[in-house]
Protein backbone atom coordinates (compact mmCIF):
# COMPACT_ATOMS: atom_id res chain seq x y z
CA UNK A 1 0.00 0.00 0.00
CA UNK A 2 1.81 3.08 -1.29
CA UNK A 3 1.63 5.93 1.22
CA UNK A 4 1.15 8.68 -1.36
CA UNK A 5 -1.50 6.78 -3.36
CA UNK A 6 -3.47 5.79 -0.26
CA UNK A 7 -3.43 9.28 1.24
CA UNK A 8 -4.19 11.00 -2.07
CA UNK A 9 -7.13 8.69 -2.77
CA UNK A 10 -8.35 9.05 0.82
CA UNK A 11 -8.21 12.84 0.68
CA UNK A 12 -10.00 12.93 -2.68
CA UNK A 13 -12.78 10.51 -1.71
CA UNK A 14 -13.19 12.04 1.74
CA UNK A 15 -13.06 15.61 0.47
CA UNK A 16 -15.63 15.09 -2.26
CA UNK A 17 -18.00 13.15 0.02
CA UNK A 18 -17.82 15.76 2.78
CA UNK A 19 -18.29 18.59 0.28
CA UNK A 20 -21.29 16.73 -1.11
CA UNK A 21 -22.71 16.38 2.41
CA UNK A 22 -22.15 20.09 3.06
CA UNK A 23 -23.85 21.07 -0.21
CA UNK A 24 -26.81 18.85 0.62
CA UNK A 25 -27.39 20.37 4.06
CA UNK A 26 -26.64 23.96 3.00
CA UNK A 27 -29.98 24.20 1.20
CA UNK A 28 -30.89 25.00 -2.40
CA UNK A 29 -30.34 28.73 -1.89
CA UNK A 30 -26.66 28.19 -1.17
CA UNK A 31 -26.02 25.53 -3.79
CA UNK A 32 -23.97 26.44 -6.84
CA UNK A 33 -25.46 26.05 -10.31
CA UNK A 34 -23.33 25.51 -13.40
CA UNK A 35 -24.55 26.35 -16.90
CA UNK A 36 -23.20 24.43 -19.89
CA UNK A 37 -24.85 24.41 -23.28
CA UNK A 38 -24.22 20.70 -23.74
CA UNK A 39 -25.46 19.55 -20.34
CA UNK A 40 -27.89 22.41 -19.77
CA UNK A 41 -28.07 23.75 -16.25
CA UNK A 42 -27.43 21.53 -13.27
CA UNK A 43 -26.67 22.09 -9.62
CA UNK A 44 -23.18 21.35 -8.37
CA UNK A 45 -24.77 19.81 -5.27
CA UNK A 46 -26.47 17.18 -7.45
CA UNK A 47 -23.27 16.37 -9.30
CA UNK A 48 -21.32 16.07 -6.03
CA UNK A 49 -24.04 13.89 -4.54
CA UNK A 50 -23.83 11.53 -7.52
CA UNK A 51 -20.01 11.51 -7.44
CA UNK A 52 -19.91 10.90 -3.69
CA UNK A 53 -22.25 7.91 -4.07
CA UNK A 54 -20.31 6.44 -7.00
CA UNK A 55 -16.78 6.76 -5.57
CA UNK A 56 -16.97 4.01 -2.90
CA UNK A 57 -18.52 1.69 -5.49
CA UNK A 58 -15.73 2.46 -7.97
CA UNK A 59 -13.01 1.92 -5.35
CA UNK A 60 -14.64 -1.34 -4.26
CA UNK A 61 -14.85 -2.84 -7.74
CA UNK A 62 -11.50 -1.36 -8.77
CA UNK A 63 -9.61 -2.94 -5.87
CA UNK A 64 -11.42 -6.23 -6.36
CA UNK A 65 -10.73 -6.26 -10.11
CA UNK A 66 -7.02 -5.61 -9.64
CA UNK A 67 -6.48 -8.22 -6.93
CA UNK A 68 -8.87 -11.11 -7.71
CA UNK A 69 -7.56 -14.40 -9.15
CA UNK A 70 -9.07 -17.07 -11.40
CA UNK A 71 -8.41 -20.00 -9.07
CA UNK A 72 -10.92 -22.22 -7.24
CA UNK A 73 -10.48 -22.37 -3.47
CA UNK A 74 -11.46 -25.34 -1.30
CA UNK A 75 -15.29 -25.62 -1.58
CA UNK A 76 -15.16 -24.19 -5.12
CA UNK A 77 -13.55 -27.42 -6.29
CA UNK A 78 -16.18 -30.00 -5.43
CA UNK A 79 -19.16 -27.62 -5.25
CA UNK A 80 -18.67 -25.85 -8.61
CA UNK A 81 -15.92 -27.44 -10.70
CA UNK A 82 -17.16 -31.00 -10.16
CA UNK A 83 -20.79 -30.30 -11.06
CA UNK A 84 -19.84 -28.23 -14.12
CA UNK A 85 -17.50 -30.97 -15.32
CA UNK A 86 -20.25 -33.55 -14.91
CA UNK A 87 -22.70 -31.44 -16.93
CA UNK A 88 -20.06 -30.68 -19.59
CA UNK A 89 -19.46 -34.39 -20.06
CA UNK A 90 -23.18 -34.87 -20.68
CA UNK A 91 -26.07 -35.48 -18.30
CA UNK A 92 -28.31 -37.28 -20.79
CA UNK A 93 -31.65 -36.05 -19.44
CA UNK A 94 -33.24 -33.08 -17.70
CA UNK A 95 -33.53 -35.12 -14.52
CA UNK A 96 -29.79 -35.87 -14.50
CA UNK A 97 -29.06 -32.21 -15.22
CA UNK A 98 -31.16 -31.11 -12.23
CA UNK A 99 -29.50 -33.78 -10.09
CA UNK A 100 -26.07 -32.34 -10.92
CA UNK A 101 -27.25 -28.81 -10.08
CA UNK A 102 -29.09 -29.69 -6.87
CA UNK A 103 -26.69 -32.26 -5.41
CA UNK A 104 -26.13 -31.58 -1.70
CA UNK A 105 -23.23 -29.28 -0.80
CA UNK A 106 -22.57 -29.42 2.94
CA UNK A 107 -26.15 -29.09 4.31
CA UNK A 108 -27.57 -27.04 1.42
CA UNK A 109 -28.29 -26.93 -2.28
CA UNK A 110 -26.53 -24.23 -4.30
CA UNK A 111 -28.41 -24.45 -7.59
CA UNK A 112 -27.99 -20.80 -8.62
CA UNK A 113 -24.19 -20.64 -8.45
CA UNK A 114 -23.88 -23.95 -10.31
CA UNK A 115 -26.35 -22.84 -12.96
CA UNK A 116 -24.41 -19.61 -13.54
CA UNK A 117 -21.18 -21.63 -13.82
CA UNK A 118 -22.82 -23.89 -16.42
CA UNK A 119 -24.13 -20.92 -18.41
CA UNK A 120 -20.63 -19.44 -18.36
CA UNK A 121 -19.20 -22.71 -19.63
CA UNK A 122 -21.77 -22.98 -22.44
CA UNK A 123 -21.09 -19.39 -23.55
CA UNK A 124 -17.29 -19.22 -23.20
CA UNK A 125 -16.22 -22.87 -23.15
CA UNK A 126 -14.55 -22.61 -19.74
CA UNK A 127 -15.08 -21.39 -16.18
CA UNK A 128 -13.63 -18.11 -14.98
CA UNK A 129 -14.00 -18.01 -11.21
CA UNK A 130 -13.49 -14.24 -11.22
CA UNK A 131 -16.59 -13.72 -13.37
CA UNK A 132 -18.51 -16.14 -11.18
CA UNK A 133 -17.68 -14.08 -8.10
CA UNK A 134 -18.37 -10.83 -9.97
CA UNK A 135 -21.88 -11.99 -10.83
CA UNK A 136 -22.59 -12.36 -7.12
CA UNK A 137 -20.84 -9.17 -6.06
CA UNK A 138 -22.92 -7.14 -8.52
CA UNK A 139 -25.97 -8.02 -6.42
CA UNK A 140 -24.70 -5.32 -4.03
CA UNK A 141 -25.85 -2.81 -6.66
CA UNK A 142 -29.37 -4.23 -6.46
CA UNK A 143 -29.42 -3.67 -2.71
CA UNK A 144 -28.03 -0.16 -3.09
CA UNK A 145 -30.75 0.63 -5.63
CA UNK A 146 -33.46 -0.65 -3.25
CA UNK A 147 -32.15 1.45 -0.35
CA UNK A 148 -31.96 4.51 -2.62
CA UNK A 149 -35.57 3.90 -3.70
CA UNK A 150 -36.53 3.64 -0.03
CA UNK A 151 -35.01 7.10 0.62
CA UNK A 152 -36.65 8.57 -2.49
CA UNK A 153 -40.08 7.44 -1.30
CA UNK A 154 -39.66 8.97 2.18
CA UNK A 155 -41.26 12.40 1.91
CA UNK A 156 -40.05 13.70 5.28
CA UNK A 157 -36.48 12.42 4.92
CA UNK A 158 -33.64 14.42 3.30
CA UNK A 159 -32.03 12.45 0.48
CA UNK A 160 -28.67 13.62 1.84
CA UNK A 161 -28.97 11.02 4.60
CA UNK A 162 -28.49 8.32 1.95
CA UNK A 163 -24.84 9.39 1.50
CA UNK A 164 -23.31 7.25 4.31
CA UNK A 165 -24.90 4.03 3.01
CA UNK A 166 -22.54 3.33 0.05
CA UNK A 167 -19.50 3.89 2.29
CA UNK A 168 -20.67 1.29 4.79
CA UNK A 169 -21.99 -1.17 2.22
CA UNK A 170 -18.89 -1.13 0.00
CA UNK A 171 -16.34 -1.39 2.79
CA UNK A 172 -13.82 -4.22 2.67
CA UNK A 173 -14.14 -5.99 6.01
CA UNK A 174 -15.68 -9.03 4.28
CA UNK A 175 -12.82 -9.43 1.77
CA UNK A 176 -12.74 -13.21 2.23
CA UNK A 177 -16.30 -13.51 0.93
CA UNK A 178 -15.34 -11.51 -2.17
CA UNK A 179 -12.36 -13.65 -3.23
CA UNK A 180 -13.83 -17.06 -2.45
CA UNK A 181 -15.69 -17.59 -5.71
CA UNK A 182 -18.60 -19.64 -4.36
CA UNK A 183 -19.61 -17.18 -1.66
CA UNK A 184 -20.89 -14.06 -3.54
CA UNK A 185 -23.64 -15.88 -5.48
CA UNK A 186 -24.38 -18.06 -2.48
CA UNK A 187 -23.98 -16.32 0.86
CA UNK A 188 -24.15 -12.68 -0.28
CA UNK A 189 -26.78 -12.81 -3.02
CA UNK A 190 -29.16 -14.95 -0.94
CA UNK A 191 -29.76 -11.99 1.38
CA UNK A 192 -30.15 -9.48 -1.43
CA UNK A 193 -32.64 -11.64 -3.33
CA UNK A 194 -34.46 -12.04 -0.02
CA UNK A 195 -34.52 -8.28 0.61
CA UNK A 196 -35.73 -7.70 -2.96
CA UNK A 197 -38.45 -10.32 -2.52
CA UNK A 198 -39.74 -8.62 0.64
CA UNK A 199 -39.51 -5.22 -1.10
CA UNK A 200 -41.76 -6.39 -3.93
CA UNK A 201 -44.25 -8.13 -1.65
CA UNK A 202 -44.48 -4.95 0.43
CA UNK A 203 -45.75 -3.08 -2.65
CA UNK A 204 -49.01 -5.00 -2.29
CA UNK A 205 -49.89 -5.58 -5.94
CA UNK A 206 -50.60 -8.82 -7.78
CA UNK A 207 -47.54 -8.60 -10.04
CA UNK A 208 -45.20 -7.51 -7.25
CA UNK A 209 -46.32 -10.55 -5.25
CA UNK A 210 -45.60 -12.85 -8.21
CA UNK A 211 -42.16 -11.35 -8.84
CA UNK A 212 -41.49 -11.39 -5.11
CA UNK A 213 -42.25 -15.12 -5.03
CA UNK A 214 -39.83 -15.64 -7.92
CA UNK A 215 -37.03 -13.81 -6.07
CA UNK A 216 -37.85 -15.75 -2.91
CA UNK A 217 -37.37 -19.03 -4.78
CA UNK A 218 -34.13 -17.64 -6.24
CA UNK A 219 -32.95 -16.88 -2.70
CA UNK A 220 -33.83 -20.36 -1.47
CA UNK A 221 -31.90 -22.04 -4.27
CA UNK A 222 -28.94 -19.73 -3.70
CA UNK A 223 -28.39 -20.88 -0.14
CA UNK A 224 -30.29 -22.57 2.68
CA UNK A 225 -30.69 -19.19 4.47
CA UNK A 226 -33.26 -18.34 1.79
CA UNK A 227 -35.68 -20.76 3.47
CA UNK A 228 -36.55 -18.01 5.97
CA UNK A 229 -38.11 -15.89 3.23
CA UNK A 230 -41.16 -18.19 3.23
CA UNK A 231 -42.27 -17.66 6.84
CA UNK A 232 -41.17 -14.00 6.95
CA UNK A 233 -43.30 -12.98 3.98
CA UNK A 234 -46.16 -15.18 5.19
CA UNK A 235 -46.15 -13.27 8.50
CA UNK A 236 -46.25 -9.94 6.64
CA UNK A 237 -49.21 -11.05 4.54
CA UNK A 238 -51.05 -12.41 7.58
CA UNK A 239 -50.41 -9.20 9.53
CA UNK A 240 -51.89 -7.23 6.62
CA UNK A 241 -54.89 -9.60 6.66
CA UNK A 242 -54.35 -10.67 3.07
CA UNK A 243 -55.65 -14.17 3.69
CA UNK A 244 -55.73 -15.45 0.13
CA UNK A 245 -52.25 -14.20 -0.71
CA UNK A 246 -50.91 -15.60 2.57
CA UNK A 247 -52.50 -19.00 1.90
CA UNK A 248 -51.08 -19.20 -1.62
CA UNK A 249 -47.66 -18.08 -0.41
CA UNK A 250 -47.55 -20.68 2.37
CA UNK A 251 -48.69 -23.39 -0.01
CA UNK A 252 -46.10 -22.48 -2.62
CA UNK A 253 -43.16 -22.19 -0.22
CA UNK A 254 -44.30 -25.18 1.79
CA UNK A 255 -44.07 -27.36 -1.32
CA UNK A 256 -40.79 -25.85 -2.53
CA UNK A 257 -39.16 -26.01 0.90
CA UNK A 258 -40.21 -29.64 1.32
CA UNK A 259 -38.76 -30.44 -2.09
CA UNK A 260 -35.59 -28.49 -1.23
CA UNK A 261 -34.92 -30.46 1.98
CA UNK A 262 -35.88 -33.83 0.55
CA UNK A 263 -32.86 -36.13 0.79
CA UNK A 264 -30.66 -33.57 2.58
CA UNK A 265 -28.64 -34.90 5.52
CA UNK A 266 -26.49 -33.08 8.06
CA UNK A 267 -22.81 -33.81 7.30
CA UNK A 268 -20.73 -35.62 9.91
CA UNK A 269 -18.37 -32.66 10.33
CA UNK A 270 -21.21 -30.41 11.56
CA UNK A 271 -21.84 -30.43 15.32
CA UNK A 272 -24.94 -32.23 16.54
CA UNK A 273 -27.87 -30.47 18.19
CA UNK A 274 -26.77 -31.88 21.56
CA UNK A 275 -23.25 -30.50 21.08
CA UNK A 276 -24.58 -27.08 20.19
CA UNK A 277 -27.02 -27.02 23.11
CA UNK A 278 -24.24 -28.00 25.50
CA UNK A 279 -22.43 -24.85 24.31
CA UNK A 280 -25.35 -22.62 25.28
CA UNK A 281 -23.09 -19.89 26.67
CA UNK A 282 -21.35 -19.58 23.32
CA UNK A 283 -24.73 -19.64 21.59
CA UNK A 284 -26.05 -16.80 23.76
CA UNK A 285 -22.89 -14.74 23.23
CA UNK A 286 -23.13 -15.21 19.47
CA UNK A 287 -26.81 -14.25 19.44
CA UNK A 288 -26.11 -11.01 21.34
CA UNK A 289 -22.82 -10.13 19.60
CA UNK A 290 -23.93 -10.61 15.99
CA UNK A 291 -26.27 -7.58 15.94
CA UNK A 292 -23.33 -5.46 17.13
CA UNK A 293 -20.65 -6.81 14.80
CA UNK A 294 -20.58 -3.59 12.78
CA UNK A 295 -18.42 -2.23 15.62
CA UNK A 296 -15.85 -5.02 15.15
CA UNK A 297 -13.26 -2.73 13.58
CA UNK A 298 -10.30 -3.36 15.92
CA UNK A 299 -9.07 -6.45 14.11
CA UNK A 300 -5.75 -6.60 15.96
CA UNK A 301 -7.41 -7.04 19.36
CA UNK A 302 -8.00 -10.42 20.97
CA UNK A 303 -11.13 -12.42 20.12
CA UNK A 304 -12.47 -11.90 23.65
CA UNK A 305 -12.12 -8.11 23.37
CA UNK A 306 -13.73 -7.99 19.95
CA UNK A 307 -16.66 -10.13 21.10
CA UNK A 308 -17.13 -8.02 24.24
CA UNK A 309 -17.38 -4.76 22.27
CA UNK A 310 -19.72 -6.40 19.77
CA UNK A 311 -21.94 -7.78 22.54
CA UNK A 312 -22.31 -4.32 24.11
CA UNK A 313 -23.21 -2.82 20.73
CA UNK A 314 -25.46 -5.81 20.05
CA UNK A 315 -27.54 -5.13 23.16
CA UNK A 316 -28.02 -1.53 22.03
CA UNK A 317 -29.01 -2.72 18.56
CA UNK A 318 -31.48 -5.27 19.89
CA UNK A 319 -32.96 -2.59 22.15
CA UNK A 320 -33.50 -0.37 19.11
CA UNK A 321 -35.12 -3.21 17.17
CA UNK A 322 -37.29 -4.14 20.16
CA UNK A 323 -38.46 -0.55 20.58
CA UNK A 324 -39.29 -0.22 16.87
CA UNK A 325 -41.10 -3.57 16.97
CA UNK A 326 -43.23 -2.32 19.87
CA UNK A 327 -44.16 0.85 17.97
CA UNK A 328 -45.02 -1.17 14.86
CA UNK A 329 -47.13 -3.63 16.86
CA UNK A 330 -49.04 -0.79 18.51
CA UNK A 331 -49.71 0.79 15.13
CA UNK A 332 -50.77 -2.59 13.74
CA UNK A 333 -53.38 -2.96 16.47
CA UNK A 334 -54.68 0.61 16.31
CA UNK A 335 -54.36 1.65 12.66
CA UNK A 336 -52.90 -1.09 10.42
CA UNK A 337 -53.72 0.91 7.30
CA UNK A 338 -51.20 3.60 8.25
CA UNK A 339 -48.22 1.21 8.03
CA UNK A 340 -46.40 2.06 4.81
CA UNK A 341 -44.81 -0.42 2.36
CA UNK A 342 -41.40 0.93 3.43
CA UNK A 343 -42.12 0.03 7.05
CA UNK A 344 -43.28 -3.45 6.07
CA UNK A 345 -40.05 -3.89 4.12
CA UNK A 346 -37.90 -2.81 7.04
CA UNK A 347 -39.76 -5.11 9.42
CA UNK A 348 -39.48 -8.08 7.05
CA UNK A 349 -35.76 -7.60 6.37
CA UNK A 350 -34.94 -7.23 10.07
CA UNK A 351 -36.94 -10.38 10.84
CA UNK A 352 -35.15 -12.23 8.00
CA UNK A 353 -31.73 -11.30 9.40
CA UNK A 354 -32.75 -12.13 12.97
CA UNK A 355 -33.76 -15.61 11.79
CA UNK A 356 -30.38 -16.14 10.13
CA UNK A 357 -28.60 -14.89 13.28
CA UNK A 358 -30.46 -17.45 15.35
CA UNK A 359 -29.72 -20.22 12.85
CA UNK A 360 -26.02 -19.33 12.75
CA UNK A 361 -25.76 -19.19 16.55
CA UNK A 362 -27.65 -22.46 16.96
CA UNK A 363 -25.73 -24.29 14.24
CA UNK A 364 -22.19 -23.08 15.03
CA UNK A 365 -22.18 -22.74 18.83
CA UNK A 366 -20.03 -25.86 19.31
CA UNK A 367 -17.31 -24.26 17.13
CA UNK A 368 -17.06 -21.30 19.51
CA UNK A 369 -18.30 -17.71 19.43
CA UNK A 370 -15.12 -16.60 17.63
CA UNK A 371 -16.64 -18.14 14.49
CA UNK A 372 -18.66 -14.99 13.86
CA UNK A 373 -15.44 -12.93 13.67
CA UNK A 374 -14.53 -14.54 10.34
CA UNK A 375 -14.28 -12.11 7.44
CA UNK A 376 -16.64 -14.06 5.22
CA UNK A 377 -19.62 -13.30 7.52
CA UNK A 378 -19.10 -9.53 7.67
CA UNK A 379 -21.51 -8.64 4.87
CA UNK A 380 -24.41 -10.01 6.96
CA UNK A 381 -23.61 -7.53 9.71
CA UNK A 382 -23.22 -4.71 7.18
CA UNK A 383 -26.76 -5.38 6.00
CA UNK A 384 -27.93 -5.38 9.61
CA UNK A 385 -26.20 -2.06 10.30
CA UNK A 386 -27.86 -0.53 7.24
CA UNK A 387 -31.31 -1.55 8.46
CA UNK A 388 -30.52 -0.26 11.96
CA UNK A 389 -29.64 3.08 10.37
CA UNK A 390 -32.95 3.13 8.48
CA UNK A 391 -34.80 2.26 11.69
CA UNK A 392 -33.15 5.19 13.46
CA UNK A 393 -34.26 7.47 10.64
CA UNK A 394 -37.86 6.42 11.35
CA UNK A 395 -37.57 8.10 14.76
CA UNK A 396 -38.02 11.91 14.61
CA UNK A 397 -35.37 12.64 17.26
CA UNK A 398 -32.62 10.77 15.38
CA UNK A 399 -33.80 12.16 12.05
CA UNK A 400 -33.29 15.69 13.37
CA UNK A 401 -29.90 14.86 14.92
CA UNK A 402 -28.56 13.18 11.76
CA UNK A 403 -29.87 16.00 9.54
CA UNK A 404 -28.17 18.65 11.65
CA UNK A 405 -24.94 16.68 12.07
CA UNK A 406 -24.74 15.40 8.50
CA UNK A 407 -21.07 16.37 8.12
CA UNK A 408 -20.08 14.39 11.23
CA UNK A 409 -22.18 11.43 10.14
CA UNK A 410 -20.59 11.41 6.70
CA UNK A 411 -17.11 11.79 8.18
CA UNK A 412 -17.67 8.67 10.31
CA UNK A 413 -18.84 6.74 7.23
CA UNK A 414 -15.77 7.81 5.23
CA UNK A 415 -13.40 6.89 8.06
CA UNK A 416 -15.11 3.51 8.38
CA UNK A 417 -14.75 2.97 4.64
CA UNK A 418 -11.08 3.97 4.45
CA UNK A 419 -10.23 2.08 7.63
CA UNK A 420 -11.69 -1.12 6.19
CA UNK A 421 -9.18 -1.10 3.34
CA UNK A 422 -6.24 -0.04 5.49
CA UNK A 423 -6.90 -2.65 8.16
CA UNK A 424 -7.63 -5.58 5.86
CA UNK A 425 -5.06 -5.07 3.07
CA UNK A 426 -2.37 -7.29 4.65
CA UNK A 427 -4.78 -10.11 5.48
CA UNK A 428 -6.49 -9.76 2.11
CA UNK A 429 -3.16 -10.11 0.27
CA UNK A 430 -2.27 -13.13 2.42
CA UNK A 431 -5.62 -14.73 1.59
CA UNK A 432 -5.00 -14.04 -2.10
CA UNK A 433 -1.58 -15.69 -1.88
CA UNK A 434 -3.10 -18.64 -0.02
CA UNK A 435 -5.38 -19.30 -2.99
CA UNK A 436 -2.44 -18.98 -5.40
CA UNK A 437 -0.20 -21.22 -3.30
CA UNK A 438 -2.85 -23.95 -3.33
CA UNK A 439 -2.83 -23.82 -7.13
CA UNK A 440 0.97 -23.95 -7.17
CA UNK A 441 1.02 -26.79 -4.65
CA UNK A 442 -1.38 -28.94 -6.65
CA UNK A 443 0.30 -28.37 -10.03
CA UNK A 444 3.78 -29.09 -8.64
CA UNK A 445 3.28 -31.65 -5.86
CA UNK A 446 -0.41 -32.56 -5.72
CA UNK A 447 -0.94 -30.82 -2.39
CA UNK A 448 -3.05 -28.06 -0.83
CA UNK A 449 -1.00 -26.45 1.96
CA UNK A 450 -4.00 -24.47 3.30
CA UNK A 451 -6.27 -27.54 3.61
CA UNK A 452 -4.96 -30.51 5.66
CA UNK A 453 -8.30 -32.24 4.99
CA UNK A 454 -7.12 -32.63 1.39
CA UNK A 455 -5.16 -35.73 2.39
CA UNK A 456 -8.40 -37.57 3.17
CA UNK A 457 -10.14 -36.46 -0.06
CA UNK A 458 -7.10 -36.49 -2.33
CA UNK A 459 -8.39 -39.05 -4.81
CA UNK A 460 -11.67 -37.23 -5.36
CA UNK A 461 -10.14 -33.74 -5.66
CA UNK A 462 -7.38 -34.90 -8.00
CA UNK A 463 -9.88 -36.51 -10.36
CA UNK A 464 -11.97 -33.30 -10.42
CA UNK A 465 -8.96 -31.23 -11.45
CA UNK A 466 -7.69 -33.81 -13.91
CA UNK A 467 -11.05 -34.02 -15.69
CA UNK A 468 -11.44 -30.24 -15.77
CA UNK A 469 -7.94 -29.69 -17.17
CA UNK A 470 -8.29 -32.54 -19.65
CA UNK A 471 -11.57 -31.18 -21.05
CA UNK A 472 -10.29 -27.58 -20.82
CA UNK A 473 -13.21 -26.63 -18.59
CA UNK A 474 -10.69 -24.78 -16.47
CA UNK A 475 -7.01 -23.85 -16.84
CA UNK A 476 -4.69 -22.60 -14.08
CA UNK A 477 -3.44 -19.03 -14.68
CA UNK A 478 0.23 -18.03 -14.57
CA UNK A 479 1.45 -17.38 -11.03
CA UNK A 480 3.69 -14.41 -10.13
CA UNK A 481 6.09 -16.52 -8.06
CA UNK A 482 6.36 -19.42 -10.53
CA UNK A 483 10.08 -18.85 -11.25
CA UNK A 484 11.00 -17.09 -8.02
CA UNK A 485 13.30 -19.98 -7.02
CA UNK A 486 15.53 -19.10 -10.01
CA UNK A 487 16.08 -15.49 -8.88
CA UNK A 488 19.53 -14.32 -7.78
CA UNK A 489 20.69 -14.67 -4.18
CA UNK A 490 21.25 -11.31 -2.49
CA UNK A 491 22.16 -12.24 1.05
CA UNK A 492 20.95 -14.25 3.98
CA UNK A 493 18.29 -14.10 6.68
CA UNK A 494 18.04 -15.46 10.19
CA UNK A 495 14.87 -17.51 10.70
CA UNK A 496 13.17 -19.37 13.53
CA UNK A 497 11.98 -22.85 12.49
CA UNK A 498 9.25 -24.86 14.19
CA UNK A 499 8.84 -28.48 13.13
CA UNK A 500 6.35 -30.73 14.84
CA UNK A 501 3.23 -31.83 13.03
CA UNK A 502 3.54 -28.68 10.93
CA UNK A 503 6.49 -26.78 9.49
CA UNK A 504 6.43 -23.04 10.14
CA UNK A 505 9.07 -20.33 9.89
CA UNK A 506 9.29 -16.84 11.36
CA UNK A 507 11.62 -14.01 10.38
CA UNK A 508 12.10 -10.26 10.22
CA UNK A 509 10.67 -8.98 6.95
CA UNK A 510 12.71 -6.73 4.64
CA UNK A 511 11.18 -3.52 3.30
CA UNK A 512 8.40 -4.31 0.84
CA UNK A 513 6.05 -2.51 -1.48
CA UNK A 514 2.34 -3.29 -1.30
CA UNK A 515 1.21 -4.26 -4.79
CA UNK A 516 -0.85 -7.49 -4.89
CA UNK A 517 2.07 -9.70 -6.00
CA UNK A 518 4.58 -8.31 -3.50
CA UNK A 519 5.44 -10.56 -0.58
CA UNK A 520 7.78 -13.05 1.05
CA UNK A 521 7.68 -16.76 0.35
CA UNK A 522 9.26 -19.68 2.18
CA UNK A 523 10.77 -22.06 -0.38
CA UNK A 524 11.30 -25.63 0.87
CA UNK A 525 13.36 -27.50 -1.70
CA UNK A 526 15.34 -30.67 -2.21
CA UNK A 527 16.53 -31.37 -5.73
CA UNK A 528 13.55 -31.10 -8.08
CA UNK A 529 11.01 -31.20 -5.24
CA UNK A 530 9.89 -27.69 -4.34
CA UNK A 531 7.25 -26.47 -1.91
CA UNK A 532 6.34 -22.81 -1.51
CA UNK A 533 4.49 -21.09 1.33
CA UNK A 534 3.45 -17.43 1.70
CA UNK A 535 4.53 -15.43 4.75
CA UNK A 536 1.81 -13.64 6.71
CA UNK A 537 2.85 -9.99 6.98
CA UNK A 538 1.47 -7.75 9.72
CA UNK A 539 0.62 -4.11 9.20
CA UNK A 540 1.93 -1.11 11.12
CA UNK A 541 -0.40 1.18 13.00
CA UNK A 542 -1.78 4.09 11.01
CA UNK A 543 0.46 6.59 12.81
CA UNK A 544 3.52 4.45 12.18
CA UNK A 545 2.45 4.16 8.55
CA UNK A 546 2.30 7.96 8.27
CA UNK A 547 5.62 8.39 10.07
CA UNK A 548 7.67 5.76 8.22
CA UNK A 549 5.79 5.28 4.95
CA UNK A 550 5.89 1.52 5.56
CA UNK A 551 2.63 -0.36 5.65
CA UNK A 552 4.03 -3.74 6.69
CA UNK A 553 5.52 -4.29 10.14
CA UNK A 554 8.77 -6.18 10.71
CA UNK A 555 8.04 -9.74 11.85
CA UNK A 556 6.24 -12.31 9.71
CA UNK A 557 5.41 -16.03 9.81
CA UNK A 558 4.92 -18.55 7.06
CA UNK A 559 1.81 -20.58 6.46
CA UNK A 560 2.00 -23.82 8.46
CA UNK A 561 2.39 -26.89 6.23
CA UNK A 562 1.90 -30.50 7.25
CA UNK A 563 5.13 -32.50 7.42
CA UNK A 564 3.23 -35.29 5.65
CA UNK A 565 3.55 -33.33 2.42
CA UNK A 566 7.34 -33.88 2.43
CA UNK A 567 8.96 -37.08 1.18
CA UNK A 568 10.39 -39.41 3.79
CA UNK A 569 14.12 -39.69 4.50
CA UNK A 570 14.95 -36.44 2.75
CA UNK A 571 16.62 -33.20 3.76
CA UNK A 572 15.12 -29.94 2.57
CA UNK A 573 16.81 -26.53 2.41
CA UNK A 574 14.90 -23.44 3.50
CA UNK A 575 15.18 -20.29 1.38
CA UNK A 576 13.24 -17.04 1.40
CA UNK A 577 11.95 -15.58 -1.88
CA UNK A 578 11.22 -11.84 -2.02
CA UNK A 579 9.02 -9.96 -4.50
CA UNK A 580 8.94 -6.20 -4.07
CA UNK A 581 7.93 -4.30 -7.17
CA UNK A 582 10.42 -5.17 -9.91
CA UNK A 583 12.84 -6.66 -7.38
CA UNK A 584 12.84 -10.45 -7.18
CA UNK A 585 15.58 -12.12 -5.16
CA UNK A 586 16.41 -14.91 -2.71
CA UNK A 587 17.79 -14.92 0.83
CA UNK A 588 19.55 -18.03 2.11
CA UNK A 589 18.88 -19.15 5.68
CA UNK A 590 21.39 -21.96 6.32
CA UNK A 591 18.55 -23.98 7.86
CA UNK A 592 17.26 -27.40 6.87
CA UNK A 593 14.38 -29.69 7.80
CA UNK A 594 14.36 -33.45 7.48
CA UNK A 595 11.65 -36.10 7.54
CA UNK A 596 13.74 -39.03 8.74
Automatic annotation (TrEMBL):
Organism domain of life: Bacteria
Keyword terms of this UniProt record: Membrane, Transmembrane, Transmembrane helix
Chain ranges passing through the membrane: 47-66, 129-151, 157-175, 182-202, 208-236, 243-263, 307-329, 344-367, 379-401
UniProt protein name: Uncharacterized protein
Amino acid sequence: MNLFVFLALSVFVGGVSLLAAYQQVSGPSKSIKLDYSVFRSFALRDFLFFLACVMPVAVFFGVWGITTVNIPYQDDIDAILKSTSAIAEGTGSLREFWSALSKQDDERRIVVVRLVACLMYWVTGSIDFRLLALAGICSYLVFLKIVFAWFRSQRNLPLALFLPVPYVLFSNFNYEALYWSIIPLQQIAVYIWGFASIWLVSKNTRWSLIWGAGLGILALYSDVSGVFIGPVVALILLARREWLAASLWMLLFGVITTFYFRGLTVPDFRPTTAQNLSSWREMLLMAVAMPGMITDVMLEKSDATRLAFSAIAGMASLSLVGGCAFLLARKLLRAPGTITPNQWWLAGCVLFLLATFFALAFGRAAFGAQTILLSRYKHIFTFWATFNYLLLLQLPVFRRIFSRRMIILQMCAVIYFGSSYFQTWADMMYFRKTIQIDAYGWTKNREFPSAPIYISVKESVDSIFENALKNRIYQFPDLPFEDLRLAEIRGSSDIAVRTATYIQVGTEAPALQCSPDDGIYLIIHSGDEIHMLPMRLRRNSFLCFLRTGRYYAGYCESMAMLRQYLSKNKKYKLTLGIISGSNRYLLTTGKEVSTS
